């Protein structure tokens, strides 16, 4: 005999993942996996085919580097030139300033759609190409109804408006405004062919802006190209095209307004400065003329004229820097590098002006005074001319402002919908179906701890006397039996006995091998009575008992088969016998009509069980059915007549086989087991857990019954067993038995 592995080794084996067995499980359940996967594929295909298509509308916008528009403006161009970053322009394009203006222009706070039947209704409407549309000029609702779903129904030119709770709040005529309390609606037109009901939602302005910002996607093509791609995905492609066009145009217009505003601000500043400069020029000229008349001064010397020219030039430059400083102060702080460079230039020019002033102090008084007056005149005149020139330049700049944004491609609808992606949905549905089906198979296998090999029972110390394969013949017989049972009365349907119907079946061959094993197993038994039981219903013990009895009888031995399941036994159907008298009737014969009154012991020993025995279906095989159902089978089994029956039948027959109810359900088997010399258990392949069989053996041992071993019934050839346990069964066919 082989040594059983230690508990630690068993635990290690349980903890290991048997990849071969998992692969085998997939092969065994390939049709289940294919069915579940196909179901998911059908669902995915239906969803992809019936879902509302989503279309994409896109536009292309170019953002150029800012310029003054006329190269001849020189330094003015430098003052207005700035480099625009794509990230900044993207945020501007998606800002509430731009999108909000479009929401106001197109009144996007109102959302309306036909009220079709969910999923199927929309799909049918697309197939029929219904054109259901309502044009709403204005809609005002109470604050508590903002964002809520409203309903409007049409009957000809009349309409009724219902609030979110389904209450009628307003009615009116198409083309005429209708108002009641806080409700106001003006419908200009309506077309309906598939439905006369529409759903409306009145959003707040901020909600509408946010909704369109969420579906507006803007990105830069490439790196630092200045080309922005804007797109919107929406079920209403025409509406989305109109909105995206409006957003692109508004973005371009605000850019133009922004550039024109810079020139406008500079122009306003110059217009405020010119009157002051003009007044200063007039004052300087008057003072110069007055001084010449009073002092009768002559013209300046060459040296003084040179100083005057230098001084006027410096004053001119300082004034230009002052103008630039006024412009820069609106754009930057004093810490900006451009501002700091301008301050440094002014400090240098002020130093030069101070140096010239020191030189002027060395001139005669008359020359100094004339020079000062002439300097004031010429400086103010230069400033005045300079401002006039700047004003002309800014006027030209303002008139020629075109902005640094242009629309390359207007909004256009892509011909094919971008969603749902049918191929992707089918792939995902297939993957989900595979994962679900494989997961189901693995989970079911994990929770199904049924015995699959004889080694699993031997690990638990239970000898396996035979492995009975599942029979295709018995499977087809059972299917016919089920069909007949639906048409006829239950008692008129005969269950097949495989040993008689198909004696060459592999299941019967395995029972013949069990017959040989029993011969040696019963050498040390106290008698020739064999009890066959099981842990629970449905394991096939009645099938094994009846066919084993037939195999023993076919081998030439005199065999008695007793249906010990007084409660639900059905061996009489398999043995083609009647159930009018049987074991229960024989045992009841030892009782009076009252359960407390027993027949005298001297009468118990003198009885004949022959009237309860039926023969003829199989040669050498006699049969005692269960008989009339009794309310107290356990008490009957404990009666002295049961013991005497076992003793007499053991003497009269070579083998006595008793089929009993499952031990874990009732105690009948434990009582019968005391009379039997050999007790065998039946375990169902893939259904009976090894621990359950161990518990069954312990239950028998607690009642003083020794279990010789077990019979593994209804073995199937599965890939999970082949790959998982590394060996193949000797049987290529299988048997499926239905316990009634």
Give an account of the 3D structure:
The protein is α/β, with parallel strands linked by helices and about 750 residues long. Among the domains are: about 20-50 and about 420-445, no CATH class; about 110-200, no CATH class; about 270-400, no CATH class; about 455-460 and about 525-715, 3-Layer(aba) Sandwich (Rossmann fold), CATH 3.40.50. It is built from 26 helices and 20 strands. Strands 13-20-19-14-18-15-17-16 form an 8-stranded mixed sheet, with helices on both faces. A hairpin with a 2-residue loop joins strand 4 and strand 5 (about 160).
Sequence-ordered SSE layout with sheet pairings:
Elements: H1 7-15, H2 19-28, H3 30-50, E1 55-63, H4 75-80, H5 86-93, H6 96-106, E2 110-114, H7 120-128, E3 133-140, E4 149-155, E5 158-162, E6 168-173, E7 178-180, E8 183-191, E9 197-202, H8 205-215, E10 216-220, E11 227-234, H9 237-295, H10 302-331, H11 337-360, H12 365-399, E12 405-413, H13 422-447, H14 454-459, E13 464-469, H15 472-487, H16 498-501, H17 506-521, E14 529-533, H18 541-554, E15 559-563, H19 571-574, H20 583-588, H21 601-604, E16 614-618, E17 621-624, H22 633-637, H23 640-652, E18 655-659, H24 668-672, E19 678-684, H25 690-702, E20 709-715, H26 719-725
Parallel strand pairs: 13-20, 14-18, 14-19, 15-17, 15-18, 19-20
Antiparallel strand pairs: 1-11, 1-12, 2-9, 3-8, 4-5, 4-9, 5-6, 7-8, 10-11, 16-17
Helix pairs in contact: 2-26, 3-13, 6-8, 6-9, 9-12, 10-11, 10-12, 17-18
